[in-house]
Amino acid sequence: MATTIDSPRAPHTVRRSRGVNWEKWGWIYMRASGVVLLILIFGHLFVNLWLGDGIKAIDFAFVGGKWSDPFWQVWDCVMLWLAMIHGGNGMRTIVNDYATRALTRKILLAGILVAVVAEIVLGTLVIFTFDPCPAGSPADLLPSFCPVN
Amino acid sequence: MPNNPAGTMTPRRPAGTLYRGREGMWSWVLHRITGVAIFFFLLVHVLDTAMVRVAPGAYNAVIDTYKNPIMGLGETALVAAIVFHAFNGIRIILIDLWSKGAKYQRVMFWIVIGLWVVTMLGFAPRHLINVFSEVGH
């Protein structure tokens, strides 16, 4: 079959495959989630590392105190989802840029997907099934609001 | 610049390459390196925090291995990477969406560096004092 070439002055038409343009939504997602993540992560770092005694104060009782408040549970859960997908999509872009063999690329992309899904599931379960006062734990490790065993 | 009618010769430098050379390129390189570093930290950070679901003592044991000067310096570098990635991300959004973004991308890079310096001056001394005041305890 002979190849037909458009005349030089033919109007330009963009050939589009039907369906969702995932690359476009990925591009939008990186920018939208980036702005929200700036607020969430700067707040996270400010409260955990800058206020009070910073890193010195971080222990089980500190986390227990934060996650007994739904505000911080939702904050951390949104941060987890947005950051893992943002980071996973960024890693996907880098793998697509540098992995030249199809098999290497497939393995790396699958690895990123598995890591992102596993961490989102694990992190979400931890945030919402967390017990700040687990029975039988030494009282000096627990938040001060826990009933004495 | 010689006055070339369009299409009469190949320009020495390709036009409109925001990402080749100087600030445009190095900001892109730094954005990638900091992004990858933050991603791998995040994988570890979710796992260490998940230890709260195992036992209070298990979580404290993991966190105690972070409370030393080497990890403290690593945390400072991590925050430096996050702050650069965050501010340069805003610069990228402005380049893409603001009508004058590409024109001002170079000056915006130096604004990013300036804001990064100010933020790190606010964070690093305080964090390092917290880290080093615990040495020996």
UniProtKB/TrEMBL annotation, chain A:
It comes from the Bacteria. Its main location: membrane. GO terms for molecular function: metal ion binding. InterPro entries: SQR/QFR_C/D, SuccDH_FuR_B_TM-su. CDD domains: SQR_TypeA_SdhD_like. It is found in: Membrane. One of its GO terms (cellular component) is membrane. Keywords: Heme, Iron, Membrane, Metal-binding, Transmembrane, Transmembrane helix. SUPFAM superfamilies: Fumarate reductase respiratory complex transmembrane subunits. The chain crosses the membrane at residues 28-51, 71-95, 107-130. This is Succinate dehydrogenase subunit D. It comes from Herbiconiux ginsengi.
TrEMBL record, chain B:
Its cofactor is heme. Keywords: Heme, Iron, Membrane, Metal-binding, Transmembrane, Transmembrane helix. Coiled coil: none annotated. One of its GO terms (cellular component) is membrane. Its main location: membrane. GO terms for molecular function: electron transfer activity; metal ion binding. CDD domains: SQR_TypeA_SdhC_like (cd03501). It is found in: Membrane. GO terms for biological process: tricarboxylic acid cycle. The keyword Transmembrane helix applies. InterPro entries: SdhC_prok, SQR/QFR_C/D, Succ_DH_cytb556, SuccDH_FuR_B_TM-su. The keyword Metal-binding applies. It comes from the Bacteria. The chain crosses the membrane at residues 29-47, 76-95, 107-124. Belongs to the cytochrome b560 family. This is Succinate dehydrogenase subunit C.
